[in-house]
C-alpha cells in the first residue's frame, strides 16, 4: 500500500478528512460521465442502475480496501480491549460488504477497484506512523469521521435506488456502519467536537486523490478474507449505555 503523503490536511492540529470515491467513467462503456447522479446508465433484471448506484458500490468496495487493513492494525497494536474489539468489527464488517460487492458487481457490469483512493491510503499511513495511545486516538477519530460521512449517503441510496441488488447492499452497509460507529464510540476516544466539524467541513481535494486507481487489465479481484474465527456480529450493534439518570 502506498505511503505517499497525500490528501491529509492539518488545521490547528486536527485532522480534516473526507471520504469520497468517484467511479470510473469507462465502467459501463460511458465515455463522458454525467454529473446527474440520478441518470440511469443501465437497465438490469434487478431494476434500473443510476450513476449514484454505481458510485455507491465502488465507494463501499473502496472503503473496505483501507478499513480492513486498518482493522488488522487495530487488533495487533491497539492498547485496550475496546480498541482491539473495534479492529475485529472492522475486519468482519468489511469482509462481509466486500463479499456482497464482488457478488453483485459482475451482474451490474461494475468494475471494482483493487486499491483504495490515495487519500484513503494516506489515512492508513497516518495511523501506521503512530504508536501507543496516539495510535488508538488517531485511528478512532479518522474512522469515526469517515463513517459519519458515509452514513447519511447510505440512507440516501437506500431511499432512492430502484435496483434491488444495490438496495440489499445499502441494507448491509447501514447495519455495518452503525455497528462500526458504535464500537468506535465504545473506545471512549472520539473527540465529538473535532469529528462533527470535520464531517461537515471537508477539504476540497483534487479528484485524483479521491478516486481509487483503476485495476490493471486482467488483474484478479482482491478479496478481503472472511474471518468467521473472530465470532463477531456486525449486523445488530449494541448501543452505548446511557448515563444513569438520578
TrEMBL record:
InterPro entries: DUF4142. Coiled coil: none annotated. It comes from the Bacteria. Residues 199-246 are annotated as: Disordered. Residues 52-182 form the DUF4142 domain. Pfam families: DUF4142. This is DUF4142 domain-containing protein. It comes from Streptomyces luteolifulvus. The lineage of its organism: Bacteria, Bacillati, Actinomycetota, Actinomycetes, Kitasatosporales.
